[in-house]
Amino acid sequence: SGGIYLLEVHRILRPGGFWVLSGPPINYENRYIGWNTTVAEQKANYEKLEQLLTKMCFKVYNKKNDIAVWQKSSDESCYKQLDAPDNYPTKCDDGTEPDSAWYTPLRPCVVVPNLNHKKLSLQSVPKWPERLHEAPDRIVDVKGSHVSDFNRDDSKWKNRVKHYKTLLSALGTDKIRNVMDMNTRYGGFAASLIDDPLWVMNVVSSYAPNTLPVVYDRGLIGTYHDWCEAFSTYPRTYDLLHLDGLFTSESHRCEMKYVLLEMDRILRPNGYALMRESSYFVDGIAAIAKGLRWDCHVEDTEDVNNREKILICQKKLWYSQQQQR
């Protein structure tokens, strides 16, 4: 398809980042017989692959046996060559939103890195773990965000998580491993848990400002999602679901009960839901949670803010009478 899958690899890869290929046509000289093809055909495939990657500003980093590694260039001059007439692949026009991936078709063009972000490349981004608490360059791309806002958010979540651990003793222990922050902003909840034996899937609402680049620049992982739709994951996967004001901000788009039913589907039996919501929604959420056979209790926030409450629920393991028979 004209290399469109490689163009998507290029789009999502950080400048200076690596792409590893294992399998055809790598090591075709020794493997072509098992692939039911000819050495000439596989040689042609490899040359086409190498030619396209070079045009897309990839360089061979290393190759050994069945594995080849390419590195995406951070060199500005390489991307300027894409302006040449009749060049393929072409450079995406300025009207193409590089971060748009929600119901967006693959682009048959090269998304050129924003050279104004000096710390975007893998070589320039702060090393781990310093990058976790340093405001990324791309925070200025988020509407209404700035460095001081990031720093306040980072400090706020350190205090909140400290309080959460007093309310939910299992948090921070080996009892909770798979965690989801259902509507994160900058990934502050996950960053504050980085020293604990768990990982956090950071979910950015597709109806909220696009802060996912900030999450990734911090060295965290995340995805977009519309919580009026099902989340693409196996049922009974997560040990803990956390949300902060999700119903307050998005309950006008779909009913709370459907979101809670989806939470119940992906939450492991005996797993927890930690919900920080406005006091207006807490009673309604608790009533629906009771129907799901969750055990819940309401707690104060760390600053005893009456406008917000914390609802902690545990999903119980139960069986229908039909299953028991």
From TrEMBL:
The keyword Glycoprotein is annotated on this UniProt entry: yes
Leading EC class: transferase
Membrane topology of the entry: Single-pass membrane protein; Single-pass type II membrane protein
Compartments reported by the entry: Endomembrane system; Membrane
Principal cellular location given in the protein's record: membrane
Pfam families in UniProt: Methyltransf_29
Gene Ontology BP annotations: methylation
InterPro entries reported in the protein's UniProt record: Put_SAM_MeTrfase (IPR004159), SAM-dependent_MTases_sf (IPR029063)
Keyword set includes S-adenosyl-L-methionine: no
Source taxon at top rank: Eukaryota
Keywords, in A-Z order: Glycoprotein, Methyltransferase, Signal-anchor, Transferase, Transmembrane
GO terms of molecular function: methyltransferase activity
Gene Ontology CC terms, in alphabetical order: endosome; membrane; trans-Golgi network
Enzyme Commission identifier(s): 2.1.1.-
Family per similarity comment: Belongs to the methyltransferase superfamily.
Protein known as: Methyltransferase
Native species: Ambrosia artemisiifolia (Common ragweed)
Species lineage: Eukaryota, Viridiplantae, Streptophyta, Embryophyta, Tracheophyta
